Amino acid sequence: MKVVSRSVYLGPNLYAKFPVIRLVVDLGALEAWPSGRLGPAFRERLLECLPGLREHGCSYGEPGGFVRRLTEDEGTWLGHVLEHVAIELQNVAGIDVTFGKTRAAGEPGQYEVVYEYEQAEVGTEAGRLALTVLHALLPDELRPPGSVPSGFDFPAERDAFIRFAQRRALGPSTHALVKAAEQRGIPWIRLNEYSLIQLGHGKLQKRLQATVTSETRNIAVEIASDKEETNRLLADLGLPVPRQRLVTSEEEAVRAAEDVSYPVVVKPFNANHGRGVSIGMTDAGQVRTAFEQARVHSRSVVVESFIAGLDHRMLVVGGELVAVSRRVPGHVVGDGRTTIADLVAAVNADPRRGVGHEKVLTRLELDHQAERLLGRRGYGAASVPPEGEVVYLRSTGNLSTGGTAVDVTDVVHPDNREMATRAAKAIGLDVCGVDFLTEDIAKSYRESGGAICEVNAAPGFRMHVAPSEGTPRDVAGPVIDMLFPPGTPSRIPIAAITGTNGKTTTARMVAHIFKLNGNVVGLSTTDGVYIDGHKTVDGDMTGPIASRMVLRDPSVDVAVLEQARGGLLRAGMGYRWCNVACCLNVTADHLGLRGIGTLEDLARVKRILIEVARDTAILNADDPLCLKMAGHTEASHIGYVTMSPQHALVREHIRAGGRAAVLEEGINGHMITLYDKGAHMPLLWTHLVPATLEGRAMHNVQNAMFAALIAYAMSVKLENIRHGLRTFDTSFFQAPGRMNIFDEHGFKVILDYAHNPAAVEAMCLMVRRLEAKGRKICILAAPGDRRDEDIREIARHAAGVFDEYICRRDDGLRGRGPDEVPHMLRDGLLAHGVPGDAITIIPSEAEALDAALRRARPGDLVLALGDNVTRAWKQNIYFRPEAPAPGASTPAETAPRLEGDAAAEPPFDAEAPLMRDERGVWLAAEADD
After folding, report:
1. Torsions phi, psi of 132, nearest 5?
2. Which of 31, 69, 549, 865 could be joined to 109 by an S-S link, Cβ 3.0–4.6 Å?
3. What is the pLDDT of residues 765-798, one digit of tens each?
4. How far is the C-alpha of 365 from the C-alpha of 348, rounded, in Å?
């Protein structure tokens, strides 16, 4: 049994609407050994290792269901068992995940194993350990060699995995805040491996670092960290505080203790979690020892008067007291028979106790501080305290040092409540922990005494959300409500665009409309990420990482996200849902790759966006595969786009008050018309949209219709939609590689990234509608990873449209031979009646383009299907017919022939920026030679 491939999905995907891991597992010889054949011994050992599997419901939907599957006649296959073991290992580590599914993967003996995760590294490690565990449980004769490490010890490996998971888990306070945000529908993104969290998207975002928020003032944190300054500020307001001195030497500490009067407390100036704190020092020797302990944590040390009383943590959020806990220092209770060391071990056996903040309580430690406290009572680790005696191992009640917490929120005296909120406001903290010592929190400090010993920034929530005794308090909710008051938005509008062709142009149109609408737009496309029109990241950015780049940018107020097949298959979506999603079309492209063999398979991938749209799902009514997606969306509205005003379904949809964009015939040509709630809204004549070449480029007419309906569904005014479409053209700067036209050679050059049959067909239909006084020349290409039938289909669409053809390949061969694709294209053209003397094979893109430009004469039209569109565009605009083509001989204009493989070095700097002078003339960036 081995893992053939692994995919980690960050968001909605083919298998679930939340993060999952997908393993393709090859059972090999174990395909013949389901759990039933492996026998009872295998099942018993498995359940002994992971007893929690008994609670898995599996397909039966009730506890014990998975065990029933194991014990049925044949049982279940090991891929399915692997799924449940990976889930249970995460459960053992305290991670609440339940979802999983296992299906045959097509190849005999291969299975898709899908299971839920919270942290990607932990989920991946759970899958690895699950595989090892199953191998270890197999009979020796079935165990693959080398599949189980020598000396494999499952309990030790399980505990190591738990520690691995806990190191990567959010702390208890951060986890509580994230859960509170989820309950309120607020999206969140973890920004590092620790506790830095973004709540909300784009310009609406807030941030958390544990319980420090983006609204926490730095000066307030600085004041709270300065114990002397905090003490003085509170005292100046008449709040109860102990007398205090700041010292830097042992002798200063002794003098300070004498000044404030014994007993005293000695603590670090700026430490936390009770580290280095010594309480109740009664003489100079004890003060000197305590000073040295405090100096381990801070250069300066505070000596203050000792206030008798119980330790209370009062949590103030947004100026309101939300919870109070009485903290009891870590201790054991004697029974007259057991040593203190054994009592500590017994306490630590409590499953609620763990290391650090991994669980609701922390383990006790017999360290220096514990030994010092025991020594003051004449005890040691081997001592046996009398029955009922409470033996303290810490002088402070911090949970992080083994203390326990008792909720007393409901009994706090109003005076003490007011005192805590005044203290928080005095320091200026939005989330504040006030440490208050008093004998009885139910009595006013004015009568019973007591004092504020500290005010803390970033207070822990663990003692409040999971107290040892008393009522758990929702303290995270008030923090989230402070950051996002009810009714306040936390999400920016998101438009998600998919389809086989037209995604990039449509996304750019939508972004252009929003920019003219006054928005700061975050755009992700096949050529990069753009923030407010400026490219910030170059490359194909149509996956979840790019989406999160946009949603993390604090200036963005609208996100327009192109979502391609590849990113959805590799890692899913980068967000849980969008406002508007559209699918432009589903046509043959990339079939046969990553398990997508049919158009129906491809439609399932594209449908992911439609399934998670909340407001409007926009579909191509002229594409049957898009139409079928309407039954899979939960969006409030469905919008249809059709080029046919007679479309029966769309007509019924409009009569029912639905949204639609329809291309209608008018006296001046075609009119883009919107419908909604029975309203008929003529928008724009297609010939007024520059990107449509006066209405001839019908594929861009359709793209404009989608862009208009997307913008309308996102509440953009009609006039702003019109203005956006009338000012959007297909220049290289607005839409690189998308029908870019250059007329300055005396002949027309059209550069387009069409790379599948449907896209090439659209370009050829447009060329048919264009008037050319001279010849029409095509540089024809296809990516190497397309199916043979797709490459032949590209040739079929181009045949008969042009007078001359130059067949080339892309720079990346993608598994094909150096000249295989050009020859396949040539053969396809010949098969559809193109004469041989009209076809030339020039494999290099640069050489092919140079040849086409040199052949072209005034009045001709050149359609260049580009791969490296930036290089091709520069080569085009810097072309000078009088300059020789370096490294390339002039190709013959008759008979099929083959030129050299190597691309000619272009006579320009391919990396130089493109620019025009004040007259609009292109300025050439010549190479330095």
Report:
1. -65, -40
2. 31
3. 999 988 888 999 999 999 998 889 999 999 999 9
4. 9
